[in-house]
Amino acid sequence: MIAVRERVPALTGLLTVVSLTLVFGAVLGAIPQTVLPRAPDAVLAAIPHVNAAVSATAIVTILAGISAIRNGRVRRHRRLMLSTFGLFVTFLVLYLYRITLEGPTDFTGPAVVESYVYFPVLAIHILLAIVAIPAVYYVLLLAASYPVSELGRTNHPRAGKLAAGLWLVSFSLGIVVYAMLYLVW
After folding, report:
1. What is the pTM of this model?
2. What fold characterizes domain 8-184?
């Protein structure tokens, strides 16, 4: 793990670039639909609802992880944050799969709501998600490459607070976007 420890910033950058390339490639239609097998329409239609549940679960695991570390329960904190990362990966894989095959979902509500509520919420959600990605990778790489006894002397506690906060708000705003797209209109 010493090799990882010495390369945490570089690995964070590499993982971030790969992740954001996949996301923007899918959103912008640069990934050909033909590279993926097509699931039945019912499966594709279920993905936004599954992702909303994944996001809600991630919010719970983040909050529980924060509580665990505040109470000195390091092992529980680690399990919860790794679970959150697994939920994030699940969300991202499902999102990328669906958006590659279907493209972005159009907002069907009133234009005034779209302009003054939906787009600003979506923009903040996207911005926070983009900023959260390197923060999350950085914190995870620090946690993976240092013994617990040394983590307090790294940027892990400070960066972890930032990553958790960004994740919480991004997941929460993602649920708001979901509600506006699939429940309200």
Report:
1. 0.91
2. Four Helix Bundle (Hemerythrin (Met), subunit A) (1.20.120)
